[in-house]
């Protein structure tokens, strides 16, 4: 069972990378992984969205996911978070997000592109088959 988290500090550089990734294709969901080093978010790994319907869903490209996980292992990093964007919906997990969440120890970050002029980033942890929001702060 994952440990209870009260707040997550995410380095400003990582947040900027995620938002930039989402802004590059605002009409489609983007996705990727974030690694940690010593329990601190360390590096973002953008991964191609392999979904057949990328405007509404995301699937991490399997080959790129395997490569990112191998790089993490080589660098003594751990999987910290999985991120994706919602082009037209709030930064709230969908039923599909919960059904496809297969790493309960990871944080799930969602970027919303639907807020006029402002990007929204929210974090969630899976507890008892549901998402629980975890407050985020820039570090």
State the strand order across the main sheet. Answer: 3-2-4-5-6-7
Distance between the termini: 27 Å
Q: How confident is the prediction overall: mean pLDDT?
A: 89
Largest sheet: number of strands, sense, barrel closure: 6 strands, mixed
Query: What structural class do helix, strand and pairing data support?
Result: alpha/beta
Counting DSSP E segments of at least 2 residues, the number of strands comes to: 8
Question: Which regions have little confidence, pLDDT < 50, spanning 5+ residues?
Answer: none
CATH topology: Cytidine Deaminase, domain 2
- Radius of gyration (CA) equals 14 Å
Written as H for each helix and E for each strand, in order along the chain, the element string is EHEEHEHEEEE
Relative helix content: 10-25%
- Beta-strand portion reads 35-45%
Give an overview of the whole structure:
This protein is α/β, with parallel strands linked by helices. The protein has a single domain, classed as Cytidine Deaminase, domain 2. It contains three helices and eight strands, in the order βαββαβαββββ. The strands form two sheets. It has a six-stranded mixed beta sheet, with helices on both faces. Strands 1-8 form a two-stranded parallel sheet. Strand 2 (31-37) and strand 3 form a beta hairpin. It is globular and about 35 Å long. The two termini are 27 Å apart.
Labels describing this entry:
3 helices, single chain, alpha/beta, globular, about 140 residues, 6-stranded mixed sheet, Cytidine Deaminase, domain 2
């Amino acid at each position: 069972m994952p440990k209870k988290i009260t707040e997550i500090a995410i380095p400003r550089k990582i947040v900027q990378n995620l938002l930039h990734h989402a802004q590059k294709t605002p009409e489609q969901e983007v996705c990727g992984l974030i690694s940690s080093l010593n329990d601190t978010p360390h590096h973002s790994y953008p991964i191609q969205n392999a979904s057949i319907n990328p405007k509404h869903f995301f699937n991490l490209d399997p080959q790129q996911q395997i490569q990112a996980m191998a790089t993490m292992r080589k660098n003594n990093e751990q999987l910290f978070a999985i991120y994706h964007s919602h082009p037209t919906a709030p930064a709230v997990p969908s039923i599909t997000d919960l059904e496809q969440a297969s790493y309960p120890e990871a944080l799930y970050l969602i970027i919303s592109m639907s807020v006029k002029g402002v990007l929204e980033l929210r974090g969630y942890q899976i507890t008892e088959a549901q998402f629980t929001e975890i407050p985020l702060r820039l570090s």
